[in-house]
Amino acid sequence: MPAMPEPHPSAASSTDAPAAAPNPARATTALPDAVPHRYEAFVAGLPKAELHVHHVGSASPRIVAELAARHPKAGVPADEAKLAEYFTFTDFAHFITVYLSVVDLIRDAEDVRTLTYGVAENMHAQGIRYAELTVTPYSHIHRGIPGEAFMEAIEDARLAAERDLGLVLRWCFDISGESGIPAADVTLDAATRLAPAGLVSFGLGGPEIGVGRPQFKPHFDAARATGLHSVPHAGETTGPETIWDALNSLGAERIGHGTSATRDPDLLAHLAERQIPLEVCPTSNIATRAVATLAEHPLADMVAAGCLVTVNSDDPPMFATDLNREYAVAADLLDLDEHGIAALAKNAVTASFAPEDVKARLTAEIDDHLTTWTSTSAGDRATR
After folding, report:
1. I need a labelling partner for 369 at 20 to 30 A (CA). Which of 99, 166, 171, 290 fits?
2. Of these residues, 155, 208, 236, 326, which one is catalytic?
């Protein structure tokens, strides 16, 4: 799910979905409850990297409850049980309202740190060893948090997560597209002048319909000139032309979602030939109705074409999912065994902007987990 900007009169109609979806967080369009039982423990213990997951969109009910207790006048429930109901959306416009109400709970640097470290704890519990977390500085700076204080807070949480949890975090700063050039200017300033040490990439979120990619070319050119990688969302709720624009105008090195790529054989061949990674988020795509059903999800077609695909959770608590569940969905869609699931995990490492030593270590951990699992499973079979 792309970043959400500040509330404004058109917020209810400016979404990244082509149409409203009833109860997207509880979508029941053939989502499996879990991976096949024999793989569930394998996935839970699998060391993983995640490349497409949003900062505020990763706020769990526990984190939201803590922030709501600090700011009781905001009107957000501070009870986790009530938050489960609060996170049940009546339509997509309601989702935006709820999302923005969570953004409004983040009012100072301490709130930023609480959110960020809490997200890191949740990632650690899922076996995630490395993550590139998409952050939208404009949403917070626009609300009055000084940019310097915001950067200090996320960096403090990042360093603490690596020290305490062994989780390596990096940042993608993304433009909230529907807020236009002013948001792009603030985001570029945050990325280039404030430039936190953990920043590795520059992105573009928000709705795609009516928000052309080429208008942000100067901002991406400036960000790329400083060494940042280009990772815009494209082709989630629009056609293949948006992906071409992201590649040709923004120099995209990875594509966020890219759901419509399979509609254009030339584009699909281009992505496959150049191994431009696709950040696929299956549950999000179903919940937002970017894809109608899992049976129609293009993940298998992307893989069949030779594309480098990664699996991600987007806004996990908002859509009642997490990365382990997304691997469950992918395993079902692609009919994977343990070897295939491990290969999918390696794709994320390959596609990441992690330091080479981190990539090597995480790849080795995936291999070790697979070897241990398969040898133990073979031993169990031999004793039966």
Report:
1. 171
2. 236
